[in-house]
Amino acid sequence: MILQVDSDAAYLVRPEAPSQAGGYHYLGNQAKTQFNGPILVLAKTSKSVMASAAEAEVGALYMNAQEVVSI
Q: In the beta sheet, which residues pair with residue 41?
């Protein structure tokens, strides 16, 4: 089993323009045909205002990577 993460972000959806980050951490096989239940589900609001949707996605990847390292 391999620890896998699906990461996503929503840009300019909160009042005062912070972005929303999400992640789904689970165990699965290399072919991505089988997966276990979630180990961690991440839902956070970014403290800073992002300049673009791509920057929000990178911020979400960073938040998810911080959680994966601790696992």
A: 24
